[in-house]
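Fold this: Acetyl-coenzyme A synthetase
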Amino acid sequence: MTGKIYPVSEAWSSSAYIDENKYRALYEQSVSDPEGFWGEQAARIDWIKPFTKVKNTSYDPHNVSIKWYEDGSLNVAANCIDRHLETRGDQVAIIWEGDEPNLDLKVTYRELHDRVCRFANVLKKHGVKKGDRVTIYLPMIPEAAYAMLACARIGAIHSVVFGGFSPDSLASRIVDCDSSVVITADEGVRGGRKVPLKANADKALEKCPSVERVLVVKRTNGTVGWTPGRDYWLAEEMESVSADCPPEEINAEDPLFILYTSGSTGQPKGVLHTSGGYLVYASLTHQYIFDYKDGDIYWCTADVGWVTGHSYILYGPLANGATTVMFEGVPNYPTAARFWDVIDKHQVNTFYTAPTAIRALMGAGDELVKKTSRKSLKLLGSVGEPINPEAWEWYYHVVGEERCPIVDTWWQTETGGILISALPGAIALKPGSATLPFFGVKPALVTPDGQPIEGAGEGNLVITDSWPGQMRSVYKDHTRFVQTYFSAYPGTYFTGDGCRRDEDGYYWITGRVDDVINVAGHRMGTAEVESALVAHSKVAEAACVGYPHSLKGQGIYVYVTLMEGIEPTEALRTELRNWVRQEIGPIATPDLIQFAPGLPKTRSGKIMRRILRKIAEDDFSNLGDTSTLAEPGVVSDLIENRMNKA
Ligand code: 6R9
């Protein structure tokens, strides 16, 4: 089953940085001599103190340690801003497109420098020092970029929390990394609706005694609560400080940011990324995978609350002196032509979005696309989940008019940057495949019990050697880092993804093999949804699984056992849905709730998720052996009352 192949066009192979021969040669060098390869590549960024040691990494489960360029020093913000001032001070760094189509703003590198320096001085004025954690809870406004870069400038560690998360989710992330400063806005605006960020933050802060300062961006001028002495308007503070802020010297292995992400167990973990290797990797992948050339307008539609926003709206593009678009809104406001309108408005050359958005816009019909020009487009990208071939073909034929290659980029919060993707001038495309590994990346497949799979086959995806963008630890919990990623298949990094490799060596990600589900490109731990549900007074027990969803990729299916005497009603379904929404955030809202008098369990009391998954998928022909169940009868009841009857 190889499917269609779209060869590299002559125009692309002759104009791109990397053609097929170069890819083969450089890939070979990168994996046979990582020290040499990454030592050379590091010259793309400015070092304050040059490194003498390139790579010092160990995947040995007894001693996992990942260090790159460890004796070098640099400043990430200076690399993203200051070093461009001489050659491109007046070039636009950020094109901000507001939620309303008539609202936009262009920020040049010189202006970015001024804002970031002032912001950094505001942080200093409020006591933030190198190594301190700063939580950023902002909408997609330029201040989010200023805030992140201001932290980087002074060596503070930012933790960006997606603006769609609830007060509780925000609170647990603030507490985990012990932030003393929170940066938020009065309100966010998305799709014409307001999001009460300051009110959410106030609620969260009731549980966060460590927070001493809240800096508030005025976005809507909405009414907000105020705690004098703790809360400050950012704009006033920016006026009160100097615009001069020399960048701190930061060791390559000093932390740049923490980003919380869902795992298969427990609370979200604080993925820790450091400075030197991360920046080299983000910038190199951005240049080659998007074939970024001077003057290109590049647009990644992610939110800065996710890793894609960190690496491919901010750090990668700005390190490369690019013009990066930052979009506050949503794909279907005011109409489902918004993306295509914005592409025309700003003459976007490279467009990078998620399959869930592509599927939704495909559903809105071709007319909305065809009435726009899109002639500026050269290259399309996809990220966040496997893209189904139908959506791929539509993206390719209708949006890109068969002119634009699609780079399907596979990576994770943990990997810092893209690991498997086509290079548009080098690698022929197969719809639905992320294609081949990037330089320095050594993927391998193993059977569930750890036997290596050679050649074509399907198994669990591991990476057998480190790359500079790799996460360094789970914040304050190195043991969890080792357990989660390095103990299942010793000597390798375990990705949590299943994957097939075809006869051409192409990789086809099949989705998560752990209890993480991918809802509209957002990672959700089933354990988080379950713990939110059991916190409800009427719920005795809950189990959460994913099921195929035509727009979101996966939907959230929960089985709920109610407390004795509680009636399963439609009203209670709504109540539980709203409850989870409130506890975690809208992205965790269950799509289907099945009331179940009992859940299938082994005799030792473990919930048999495999069975629940099958039922949610409406595929109960192959439930496997149910004889080990404590009460085999519950299964027929679950099937009978399933919510997903085809
Ligand atoms: C960047 C990002 C990571 C998980 C990952 C995988 C899925 C991401 C994908 C993809 C197939 C792609 N994933 N990109 N699956 N093809 N191109 O999304 O990070 O939020 O940490 O999610 O997303 O399952 O393990 P993150």
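The mean pLDDT is 96. Residues 261, 306-308, 382-386, 408-413, 434, 495-497, 509, 511-512, 518, 523 surround 6R9 (CB under 6 Å).
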